Amino acid sequence: MNIAPWRRIEFALTGPLTDEVRRNMRMELLASLAYGPFYAVLLFIPVVLQRLGASPDEVALYQAQSYVGFALSAFSVRFLPRRGILIFLGAIWVVGRAVFLFTPLLPSVTGLLVLSFVFWLSDSFPSPGYVRVVQKVYPAHVRARTMSVVRLGMGVGMLVFTPVAGWLLDTIGHAALFPIAGVFGIGAALIFMLIRMPAGSEDAPNAAAAPTTPGLEPVRMLALLGQNKAFLLYVLSIAAFGLAGLIPIAFYPAVLVDRLHLSYTDVSLLGLAQSLVWLAGYVVWGRWMDRLGGVRTLQIIYLSLILYPLCHWFAPDAWWLLPAYLASGLANAGVDLAFTNVTIDLADPDRVAEYAAIQRTIIGIRGFAGPLIGVWLNQIGVPMAAIFALSMVLYGLAAALVAHPAMRRTRP
Fold first, then answer.
1. What is the mean pLDDT of the chain?
2. Fewer CB in a 10 Å sphere around the end CB: N or C, the chain?
3. Cβ-proximal residues to 227 (8 Å cutoff; 6+ apart), any chain
4. What is the pLDDT of residue 362?
């Protein structure tokens, strides 16, 4: 019997899957493919802000506001429905991504900050719900591999659109490009809503309505962390990892624009290299994570990212940034898979959404604080080189936390 080449490739990546799991994986793959061009454009926002004349404070504010929704994740658990969660998530994402259709009306630094705030809030606030969907639709023994295939779609979309986005920014400008990107983002959310929850799950269409999960108060969050040492170490590593990336983040666009004088096309070529490795990373990590485990994967990722601040620190030209972008692409793919999988692995099976809310809250708090800390350090006289060095130290600390013996007793 002849089997289509793409089916053979799919089987090689995932192994045997049930028909329902395979259908959901393919549906989310299509959504991810549509999301790729949208996300590729988002990556240019800090450079766009820099070229519009934004100050380091304003660039830091953009980076910080992208984590506000995560910081509120503990409250979002209260609103997650037991039934119809796919429609709930899709509707919120459509509204948030649609704001970029209004970019021509608000093309300034302030306008872009307002639009992006609405988007990031809507995109990340309900994120614990997505973790619940992943837990339900992808069995644990194939979850990393199926998610790696899904994320390949985003990688392909980014790979194709990143150089196009750079060229379009140089020719038609961000006010014309961002609405196009918004259409792709809306399409991705609509396709995601076509996933089917497994029959008999609490979120299946025929399931009886149930009350929403109560929100997580700070005392309950601390109690959960106190009961699970491995998860506590994990979220501390997330905090250190996030601060390592975010404390210097307001200064990376300055290196690109002010020191190296790169055009949007130059930046897009670096982004293309990043996307190539990002794409390959989903294939590599999907296999390795099932063998090494999510925790070991995170340790490798944290250490590899030391290259990012190191290269920006010393870069005399764009070529010196290439290793940083390659390491970032590989790490982004790994983090995308590992954060979801490690959270599910370390959480109590019946409380995944709550643990995911804790994880997202930690991401949000350090995400909001990190860029502002970096700007504050610079304002009190700490040089950019020292801020890059601090970033490298924090990446090392994150790797040390997940290397703690308590993490070895967790499920791989």
1. 81
2. N
3. none
4. 82
Helix (H, G, I), strand (E, B), or coil: what is residue 358? helix
Other C-beta atoms lying within 10 Å of the C-beta of residue 400: 15
Q: How far is CA 143 from CA 24, 131, 294, 330, in A?
A: 12, 12, 11, 19
- Alpha-carbon distance of 121 to 126, in angstroms, equals 9
Q: Which of the 8 DSSP states describes residue 258? A: I
Contacts of 386 (CB under 8 A, 6+ apart): 377
Cα 202 to Cα 333: distance, rounded to the nearest angstrom = 30
pLDDT number for residue 15: 63
Q: Which amino acid is at 131?
A: V
CA distances for 289 relative to 293, 299, 411, angstroms: 5, 12, 12
Residues shown for the chain: 412
> Nearest CA to 228 among 135, 74, 360, 347?
347
What is the number of other CB atoms lying within 10 angstroms of the CB of residue 223? 12
pLDDT at 205: 42
Q: What is the pLDDT of residues 300-315, one digit of tens each?
A: 889 999 999 999 998 8
DSSP assigned state of 214: P
Q: Which of 121, 151, 122 is nearest to 28 (CA)?
A: 151
Using alpha carbons, select from 170, 178, 173, 332 the residue that is nearest to residue 266.
170
Q: What is the mean pLDDT of residues 17-30?
A: 84
Angle at CA of residue 126, ends 14 and 153, nearest 5°: 30
Q: Kindly report, residue by residue over 164-202, the tens digit of the pLDDT.
A: 988 899 899 899 999 999 999 999 999 999 988 876 555
Q: How far is CA 233 from the centre of its chain?
A: 20
